Each structure stands twice: as C-alpha cells, then as structure tokens.
C-alpha cells in the first residue's frame, strides 16, 4: 500500500510539473487552456477556474492540457492555432523543459543534502569489530602512511591504490598506519584479516568522503550533470531505436512501480535519485519527433515555418491520433513485459 501511494504521488507530481509547464507558458503568451488534467480515463473529481476545467482522472499514466483551437479551427484570438509560431513552439517545448528543470532542482537538492562520494585516502566508514575498529581508527581519519609507505602528495586515486596494495602485500603480518586526526598525527598497529569475499587481506575500512555543496555550486553541478545524463539517455534511445539494444530493459508503469517500491525500502536518497532519472527521461522522451509527443508537435511547427502555412487542424489532429494509438499499443506491450518479469 505504501508503494502504491508513493507511486501515485510520484507519477502525479512528474505529470503535473510537465503539464504545468504547458499551462503556465500558454497563459503567459495568451493561449487559453480549456482543460488541465492529471491522469487519463474517467474523471475522479475536478473544478473550474477562469474558464479552465481542472480535473484528476483515474489512470495515473499521463495527463494533458487541452488548449482552445488546438485540434480544430477557431476564430477566438486566444486559440492555440491563432497564436504566432514562436508562441506555439514555446507552449509545446515548455512541458519537457519543466521536467528537465525539475530534475536540475532535485539534483541541486541532492548535492546539498546528500552530497557526492569522492575517492580520497580518508576513512569514510570503519567495519565493526574489524582490525581497524579494534586499533581505534575512526571515520574522518586521513591516512598519511602505511607500513612506511607515504601517500602524502599523491593524487587521491593513486594514494588509495597504494594503500590497498600495501595492505594486500603485507598479508597477515602486522603493519603500522599513520593517520591525521584533528590536526595531529596518530600511529596505530594492526594485523590485516583475510576476506573470502574479496579474496585478499583487508583491515575493515571504506575509503572516501561525502562532499556536500552550497546552493550556487550545487546548481552549477546540477546543470552539468543533467546535461551528461541527457546525452547518455539520447545515446541509449538511439541504440534502442536503431539497433534494438536494451529492448528487454525497457520499463512501463508496472516496472517503474516495482522500482519505486525498491527505492521506498532503500530510503529517501534512493527515491530522490529515481525521481531525477525518471523526470529527465520524461523530458527527453517527450522531445522525440514522434506524433502525439511534444517533439512531434515541434517538428510539425518547424515544417509550418518552412512552408509558410500550417497543416489543416483536422489533418494534424489525425496524425497525432495515430501516434497516440501507437504509443498506447507500445505501453500495453511494455506493461505485458513488466508483468511477465
């Protein structure tokens, strides 16, 4: 039940943000929205305000904003079809843009709240009842020297590898470790223990540190990281569409709910990470130039700009209807695959 509730909230927020982008930019440029819906199918409840019907529907698999004159001719100056080309493009592009913006905001929150892991010759965690624990080593200790081998001045990754190799080479013999704690150098002696899991001698520490960012650095990093993730997503989509790679890994609503359930059990950090990936996915996928998606609508508007005249609303509506049917069929197939998993 908790997973279901979180999933409904999860989908609801992501869809609402997307549709809110369309709605707000529509209002900003003077295009009237007749209906703003979260979800599809039968209406559960709704209300009207300033000529717009707001509704929540039973199936949390999408949502929409219906603009006046979007799929039919209208003489109303507020109609979507009567707006200038750049205004219509702004309205269409604003949905995916809002999802990408949400991901950037969530990434910034993640970097400020949870930070990122960095490989450095410091102790992040000490395993309970391990040689390091019994010797008195503590999280935050910076390792300076291991059995006479100094790692000061080394690049972080190189220093960590030097420490690990020295411990492995020492085997089950006693070694001395010098660490820096609160500005003081402390020397401890311990005997590594053999680990069957790693098939080597270990002392029971996890290297690294968590670096948390202040607001402006977090925002800058969030923009850069969102860009990198989107490039990866585009590469994966290209491989999926043209080479069929990753076809068995595609998830629909059922699979996503399963991942949300795992994230709920793992904690807020994992749930936030999942939200970032899904909202970026939603933004990128909606920009694919396919009928019924925002990317398909943008392509038709670009064609209109080249031709100097728009397609007839009825023809454009038919194109998007065919695209919508294909998308529903794909969703059914993916959902079937989710269930069979």
In short:
The protein has 341 residues and is of the alpha+beta class. It is 53% helix and 23% strand.
Gyration radius, rounded: 27 Å
Number of helices: 9
Biggest beta sheet summary: 4 strands, antiparallel
Tally of strands: 10
- Give the SSE order as H and E letters: HEEHEHEEHEEEEEHHHHH
In angstroms, what separates the terminal alpha carbons? 21 Å
How are the strands of the largest sheet arranged?
5-4-6-7
Q: Helices and strands: which structural class?
A: alpha+beta
How many structural domains does the protein architecture include? 2
Strand % is: 15-25%
How confident overall, as mean pLDDT? 89
Shape by Cα distribution: elongated
Give unreliable regions as ranges: none
Identify the quaternary structure here.
single chain
Helix content: 40-55%
């Amino acid at each position: 039940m908790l997973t279901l509730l979180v999933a409904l909230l999860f989908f609801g927020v992501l869809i609402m943000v997307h549709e809110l982008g369309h709605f707000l930019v529509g209002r900003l440029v003077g295009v009237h929205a007749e209906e703003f819906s979260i979800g599809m199918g039968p209406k559960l409840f709704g209300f009207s305000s300033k000529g717009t019907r707001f509704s929540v529907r039973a199936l949390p698999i999408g949502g929409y904003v219906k603009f006046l004159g979007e799929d039919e001719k209208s003489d109303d100056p507020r109609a979507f079809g009567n707006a200038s080309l750049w205004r219509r493009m702004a309205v269409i592009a604003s949905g995916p843009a809002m999802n990408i913006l949400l991901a950037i905001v969530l990434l910034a929150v993640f970097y400020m709240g949870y930070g990122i892991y960095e490989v450095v010759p410091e102790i992040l965690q000490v395993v309970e009842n391990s040689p390091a624990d019994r010797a008195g080593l503590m999280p935050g200790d910076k390792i300076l020297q291991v059995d006479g081998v100094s790692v000061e001045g080394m690049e972080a990754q190189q220093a960590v590898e030097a420490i690990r190799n020295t411990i492995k080479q020492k085997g089950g013999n006693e070694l001395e470790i010098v660490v820096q704690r609160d500005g003081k150098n402390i020397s401890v002696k311990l005997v590594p223990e053999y680990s069957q899991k790693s098939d080597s001698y270990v002392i029971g520490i996890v290297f690294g540190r968590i670096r948390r960012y202040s607001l402006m650095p977090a925002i800058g990093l969030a923009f850069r990281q969102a860009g990198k993730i989107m490039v990866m997503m585009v590469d994966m989509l290209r491989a999926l569409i043209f080479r069929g790679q990753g076809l068995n890994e595609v998830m629909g609503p059922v699979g996503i709910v399963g991942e949300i359930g795992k994230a709920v059990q793992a904690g807020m950090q994992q749930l936030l990470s999942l939200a970032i990936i899904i909202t970026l996915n939603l933004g990128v996928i909606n920009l694919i130039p396919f009928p019924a998606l925002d990317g398909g609508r943008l392509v038709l508007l670009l064609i209109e700009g080249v031709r100097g005249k728009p397609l007839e609303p009825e023809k454009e509506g038919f194109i998007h209807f065919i695209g919508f049917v294909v998308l529903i069929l794909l969703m059914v197939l993916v959902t079937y695959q989710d269930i069979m998993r």
